Amino acid sequence: MPVAHRAPTPETPPRPRPDGSRAGAATSPWRHRLDRKVSPYAYVAPFFLLFAAFGLFPLIYTAWVSLHDWNLLSSANPFIGLDNYRELFADGYFWNAAFNTLSIGVLSAAPQLVLALVLAHLLNRPLRAQTLFRITLLLPNVTSVVAVVVIFSQLFGRDFGLVNAFLDLVGIDRVYWQAHVASSHVAIATMIMWRWTGYNALIYLAAMQAVPREIYEAATIDGASAARQLWGITIPMIRPTIIFTVIVTTIGSMQIIAEPLLFGAQVSNGASTTGGTDRQFQTLALYLYEKGFRSFEFGYASAAAWVMFLLVVVVVGFNYLVVRRMRGGLDV
Amino acid sequence: MGIPRTGRRITRLLAPMVAATLLTLTACGGGGGSSPASGDSAAPAEKIKLTVGLFGDFGFKPLYEEFRKTHPNIEIEERQAAYADHHTNLAAHLATGAGAADVEGIEVGFISQFTAQPDRFQDLRQYGLDKRQGDYLDWKWQQGVGANGAVVGLGTDVGGLAMCYRTDLFKKAGLPTKRDEVSALWPTWDQYIETGKKFGAAADKGTKFFDSPGEIIRAMIAQAPVGVYDAQDNVVVASNPDVKKAWDLSVQMIKDDLSAKIGAWTPEWNTGFAKGSFATIICPAWMTAYIQDQAKNAAGKWDIATVPGGAGNAGGTHLTVPKQSKHPKEAAELVDFLTSADSQAAVFKAIGNFPSIPALYDQPDIQNFTKDFFNGAPVGKIYADAAKNLKPQHLGPKEGDVRTAIGNGLGRVEQGQQTPEQAWAQVLKDVENIK
């Protein structure tokens, strides 16, 4: 708990007066006070102005659009109240997309974060060529997502894919990866893990370096094994970071679109926006894309975007609660 | 505010706010600033840059140079994007009133969606292009006309259907290889299936009769007098017996194991061309260039026969001028030039897109035009015949979405996800939801 609460504190202590002495006698008290009161807002203003223009306004405008029968091309967009939402909640394909998103999210996020933790733990010790290892971890992340998906789609190719060639070799039946729900989710989760495991490992590593070495030394003297130290010291000490990565990863996995889109493009043109011939791997973001940018139904897509936003909030909140309750062996 | 110190202080205080406001303003300006500037035609001497937005190569590059001979002040820049992206972006650019090119190509799969919104485009009648109506195949001309009679787009090419086939694979399977004999094998789709079965019995394991049923069902539907939409823009997939017949034939082809199960326009499809994974493929005129490009190693092995089931059209494009174009007059002139009979003939000879101007069809330089890649096939004669026999079909506003639903249905059958009956039921349900 105390660790988790540390984040907001920097705002609360009384601000130091860096320019108090400099401004000195020349400035009158009210101007000084005005400066003290207004300047901080001025300094943070750029962000908030930009956020208002590119974050808040689109958010509210999307809500407004979602109440209309708004076709991208037509000039008349009649107001229809909550009809889009009613239609959306009755649309089985929307819930199918929600399920796929969650499924792919869990399949990719859970192994990814565990693996990242282990990798970070392994790297959190004096090693030769440390920088090399760390850069290597980040490499998959800086690779363009299109390149990653194209290459993985070839690996998972039905006729000439490497994975199927290997399965053939060990005597297992070939898999048509795009044809089935489970297999397509596994394939897409693999692509996501490939890109994001190293990134999360680096964040964990940074947090681990801030854990005081004395605690480990004491634990070593007490005879704790490396695994025990990971579980008993490292994880509780970096819990805020874990919470952060869980939230960021959850948000990220709720927005997966490029992977299923390009993965489906291996089946046919039409199956790429529908995420497979039977929507086996159509995610929420892809569903939104299909409605908004293939059918040009912006009102409906906006409604989907808002429901998706609320779902993200719910899922992130749930994950936050779960992770916050996670207890290690060390009571800090 | 006499004291300079205070002035500086306030400057320091305001600077970030002003900067941020300016940033925001300029950002908005990028979106809204260049709103439609209508009609103010520039002085002839003024330097003008026209942009042309297309999907893929239309073979226009040499034509631009020629256009510049009569319009030395005009510079032309061509932008190309992938098929689906191009039309998506165009819709977005039209909706926001900014970002569209001066001349935009629109494929027939999308054309009625756009002509339904004629106010987003320049009415080309303003620039006298209605005089071109007589040049065109009537149905092609009508496709470019908006709901209110405005001329939204002028046609470039038509996609008369033909069937390309691999002579070497046919020979191996003991089938005739001469194009007339091959055409005689399959006057109907049933006979095409029979030929496919013979081929399958004799061919290598890695080679199938065709790529996937997606393009074939599209062709079969295109051959019917009424397709997926009736003349009043109602979706008639459920009630049109021709659509169901095309579906049943496609299912039959899957059952008979004729399909290589490789979707069109996928990376595996490109590999399939190179590896010779399929022996026949539906090829509208514009596809010949694509085959030539993908199957470089099979030059001279491809040939072109007539398509089973009669003439039909698949594909073709119109050139439009969005309302927001700053130089609509010059853009219209460019459209007129690029779609002229001479230009269309030149494009056909360069890359294969077949003209939509019937007066060209019987001209000797078209009739006698052959392609070595296709074993010297007289492509001019083949596609001229295909275009002449065409019966026009009305295309509806969401043609693409309906086709996707049908194609996905066949995909589910092919992947073994559903029985044909289940898949068809789901197609009908999907199509019902397309508004």
Automatic annotation (TrEMBL), chain A:
What is the recorded membrane topology of this protein?
Multi-pass membrane protein
Q: Which family does it belong to?
A: Belongs to the binding-protein-dependent transport system permease family.
Q: Which UniProt keywords apply?
A: Cell membrane, Membrane, Transmembrane, Transmembrane helix, Transport
Annotated membrane-spanning segments are 41-64, 93-120, 132-155, 175-194, 237-258, 298-322
Chain residue ranges for the region called Disordered = 1-28
Q: Which compartments is it annotated to reside in? A: Cell membrane
Query: Where does this protein chiefly localize?
Result: membrane
Source species taxonomy: Bacteria, Bacillati, Actinomycetota, Actinomycetes, Streptosporangiales
> What name does UniProt use for this protein?
Sugar ABC transporter permease
Name the PROSITE patterns on file: ABC_TM1
- Annotated InterPro entries: ABC_transporter_permease (IPR051393), MetI-like (IPR000515), MetI-like_sf (IPR035906)
Report domain ABC transmembrane type-1 positions. 98-319
